[in-house]
Amino acid sequence: MSPRNVVIVGATGAVGQEFLKVLEQREFPIKTLKLCASAKSKGKTVKFRGETLQVEELKADSFKGQEIGLFSAGGSISKEFAPVAAKAGCIVVDNTSAWRMDPKVPLVVPEVNPRAIERHEGIIANPNCSTIGLVVVLKPIHDKARIRRVVVTTFQSVSGAGARALEECIEETKAVLAGKDFKRSIFPHQIAFNAIPQIGQKKESFQPNGYTDEELKMVNETKKIMEDDTIQVAPTCVRVPVLRSHSESVNIETAKPLTPERAREILKSAPGVKVIDDPSKMAYPLATEVADHDDSYVGRIRVDPTVENGLAMWIVSDNIRKGAALNAVQIAEML
């Protein structure tokens, strides 16, 4: 792979910083690297491969001469600037929800549907972090036994709501422990020592059917990535006071019978999946141990006796890494 001119949009955010880490760790071939963010971040400096790079203000002419753009600066920014970048010849890998369900834009998880990349017209969408962790595990099971239905409850870390949310959780926890009042600005309710059954900070995140935007993303994105509209998905998404990594309790109904032992065999050889499943040693994936790792980790694989061909399992993946930056860089590597 020959070196490319790369631009990161949203370079000072949590995912932007993770882009830099992943690019460096994977030795992505970079000819030039441009960092862009909002006007308030202009002039900030970032270390990359031993050099100090300065952040520029994002403008319409930021993409001249650029070949690959890694975007994570919010949906409105992506809606405005991704077409500008594509028109300038810069292929965009977008980490927001702006383009995910556009029929002309591939929604890609490299371990699941890599060939979809070939259909791009200048923009490729990175799926939701919870969806990525899920479908990496679902795909090899679907290939062997065809999944009919998935019931999933997510336990999503506060870093999924951004750097300010992460800080708010830490500060609120300190305040609660000290018996002090705390004025929150990100979460709709106390997040310290709590679980909030809503992803999204506003009441508008709830849709008329009672599901949140985040839950509907999991439904629609799973079908698009798996390229099978017959898969039924019933999600409940919950915010928990974990700093990093999303966990998911998953029940799967398949068309063909699949024993837990066979499921473990299939998943152990699947790309992007690690199995940790030994109840005798209380061994199963944990958010604290999965953080900063690349794969989706799965354990607690067992029979779900409430349906004819049912399996239950526990999936954990790093929402900032595989759920965002790593997946985007993997797409860029394929480009």
CATH superfamily of the largest domain: Dihydrodipicolinate Reductase, domain 2
The assigned structural class equals alpha/beta
Distance between the termini: 9 Å
Q: What's the CATH class label of the largest domain?
A: Alpha Beta
Read across the widest sheet, the strand sequence of neighbours is 5-2-1-6-7-8
Average pLDDT taken over every residue: 96
**CATH fold name of the largest domain:** Dihydrodipicolinate Reductase, domain 2
Number of helices: 8
User: Considering DSSP H and I runs of 4 or more, what fraction of the residues is helical?
Assistant: 25-40%
CATH architecture of the largest domain: 2-Layer Sandwich
Taken together, the total number of domains comes to 2
Total strands: the figure is: 14
Order of helices and strands: EHEEEEEHEEHEHHEEHEHEEH
In the predicted model, the low-confidence regions spanning at least 5 consecutive residues are none
Oligomer: single chain
Radius of gyration (CA) equals 20 Å
Overall morphology: globular
